[in-house]
């Protein structure tokens, strides 16, 4: 095929010079698709991208060049070819955007073709290629920004954490659904209002100082007490971050607020429980120390001390076990009685337990446990559990008094004979009389008769609860 020179084309006078003045890459093809003319921008583009001169393209088929240049999609190359052919045929202008990437560089072009009739009466297509890479990338970045904004907006809207933003003056700009649920305030009520409306009136941090601390990076996370619509206290963990505009300047501040109210309440409860455990341990040690001193004072020998002290400690452990079952809040009086009597008698048929279902608190449980242990110890040695006809009745009832309803606990041993009352008393008697008075503020009554042993204790309402 004989190549044509640019001087052989039958273009209107002055058109080649006009095309050379254009900054867009332009090629002119004849009706068969052969390249007839390229402008100066085309030649520069070829030279910058490894081409030689226009002679490399003059007379070649433009559609083949098009096919080799558009690497992203054969469909795009085919569309360009069909569009340009339609321009040659009918004169209908054609426009499209297509990729034309080079090694290591992504490029996009806008193609525009229109028909021009030559001086020879033949149709020509003038095809203009404009580099739109910058615009395309900007649009792509904008689309990605919009997409990212939409994703971020969806994340904020669906977040389980309350998220809000406010301007540098503290006026609330955005408010997600989790913030509505947390504070009980809808967006219309807070948008434009100062973020200080969420804090107690006595909030020590000023808005200006808070803003400056966030902007300087000194404050990123902090815990704050806030208030909901109903005035309920909210303990919140706040993550604060500056929001920057396109120019890099800070335009707002975001707050992510996580509700830690329940967690802090649980921590406070655990701390209170720990303090209570320490308090109870100290009380327990005090009781153990008193038992130790009184047992040692009355014991006739080391062996007797070991037996009595060990039994009394076990009684304290037994009461503690019943309290543990009640989560150390209260102990069932019936369970407490059974656990204290069980070591002395395997068959409880000789022991009658009568009374409503009631629980006593920690202090009353310790007092009653020690008292029942001492009563059962004496009964197993001399009284109702030692004599064949002896019986024990442990009963309790509610008795109305002016100061409130008392829990009356009664211990009675019957069917026994006591030849002579003891001339002295030991630690057991002190437990039955003095300990209850000091720990419960009650006045117990302990009586020994010729054929009966009785003990009564009236427990105030603050020491028991009905089950």
Sheet having the most strands: 5 strands, antiparallel
Structural class: alpha+beta
Sequence stretches where pLDDT stays below 50 over 5 or more residues: 1-8
Number of strands: 18
Proportion of helical residues? 40-55%
What distance lies between the first and last C-alpha atoms, to the nearest angstrom? 111 Å
Brief sketch in words of this structure:
The chain is of the alpha+beta class.
Descriptive key words:
467 residues; alpha+beta; 5-stranded antiparallel beta sheet; 18 strands; 25% strand; rod-shaped; disordered N terminus
Written description of the protein model:
It is built from 13 helices and 18 strands. Helix 10 (302-325) packs antiparallel against helix 11. The N and C termini lie far apart (111 Å). The model is unreliable at 1-8 (pLDDT under 50). Strands 2-1-5-4-3 form a 5-stranded antiparallel β-sheet, with helices on both faces. A 5-stranded antiparallel β-sheet has the order 7-6-10-9-8. A hairpin with a 2-residue loop joins strand 14 and strand 15 (404-414). By secondary structure, the chain is an alpha+beta fold.
Strand-helix topology:
Elements: H1 15-20, E1 25-30, E2 35-38, H2 40-48, H3 62-69, H4 74-90, E3 94-99, E4 108-117, E5 123-131, H5 133-158, E6 162-167, E7 172-175, H6 177-183, H7 187-190, H8 207-216, E8 221-227, E9 233-244, E10 250-259, H9 261-298, H10 302-325, E11 331-332, H11 333-341, E12 351-354, E13 358-360, H12 362-381, E14 391-401, E15 404-414, H13 427-440, E16 445-448, E17 453-459, E18 464-466
Parallel strand pairs: 12-14
Antiparallel strand pairs: 1-2, 1-5, 3-4, 4-5, 6-7, 6-10, 8-9, 9-10, 11-13, 13-18, 14-15, 15-17, 16-17
């Amino acid at each position: 095929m004989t190549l044509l020179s640019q001087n052989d084309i039958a273009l209107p006078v002055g058109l080649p010079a006009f095309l050379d003045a254009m900054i867009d890459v332009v090629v002119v093809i004849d009706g068969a698709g052969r390249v007839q003319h390229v402008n100066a921008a085309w030649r520069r583009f070829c030279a910058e991208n490894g081409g030689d001169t226009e002679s490399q393209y003059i007379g070649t088929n433009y559609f083949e060049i098009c096919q080799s240049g558009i690497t992203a999609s054969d469909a795009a190359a085919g569309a360009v070819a069909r569009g340009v052919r339609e321009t040659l045929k009918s004169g209908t202008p054609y426009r499209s955007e297509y990729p034309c990437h080079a090694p290591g560089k992504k490029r996009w072009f806008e193609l525009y073709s229109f028909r021009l009739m030559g001086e020879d009466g033949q149709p020509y297509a003038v095809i203009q290629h404009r580099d739109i890479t910058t615009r395309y990338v900007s649009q792509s970045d904008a689309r990605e920004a919009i997409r990212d904004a939409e994703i971020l907006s969806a994340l904020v809207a669906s977040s389980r954490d309350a998220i809000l933003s406010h301007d540098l003056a503290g006026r609330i700009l955005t408010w997600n659904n989790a913030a509505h649920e947390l504070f009980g305030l809808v967006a219309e009520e807070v948008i434009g209002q100062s973020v200080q409306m969420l804090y107690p009136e006595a909030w020590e941090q000023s808005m200006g100082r808070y803003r400056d601390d966030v902007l300087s990076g000194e404050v990123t996370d902090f815990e704050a007490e806030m208030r909901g619509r109903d005035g309920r206290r909210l303990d919140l963990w706040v993550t604060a971050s500056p929001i920057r505009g396109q120019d890099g300047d800070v335009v707002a501040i975001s707050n992510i607020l996580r509700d830690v109210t329940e967690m802090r309440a649980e921590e406070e409860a655990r701390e209170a429980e720990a303090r209570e455990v320490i308090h109870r341990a100290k009380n327990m040690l005090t009781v153990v120390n008193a038992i130790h001193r009184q047992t040692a004072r009355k014991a006739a020998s080391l062996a007797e001390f070991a037996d009595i002290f060990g039994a009394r400690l076990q009684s304290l452990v037994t009461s503690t076990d019943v309290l543990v079952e009640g989560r150390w809040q209260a102990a069932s009086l019936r369970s407490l009685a059974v656990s204290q009597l069980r070591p002395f008698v395997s068959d409880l048929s000789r022991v009658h337990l009568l009374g409503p279902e009631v629980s006593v608190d920690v202090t009353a449980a310790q007092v009653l446990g020690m008292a029942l242990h001492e009563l059962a110890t004496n009964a197993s040695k001399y009284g109702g559990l030692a004599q064949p006809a002896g019986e024990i009745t442990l009963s309790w009832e509610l008795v109305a008094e002016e100061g409130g309803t008392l829990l009356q606990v009664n211990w009675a041993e019957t069917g026994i004979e006591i030849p002579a009352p003891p001339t002295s008393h030991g630690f057991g008697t002190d437990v039955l009389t003095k300990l209850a008075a000091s720990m419960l503020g009650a006045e117990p009554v302990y009586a020994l008769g010729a054929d009966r042993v009785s003990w009564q204790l009236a427990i105030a309402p603050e020491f028991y609860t009905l089950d």
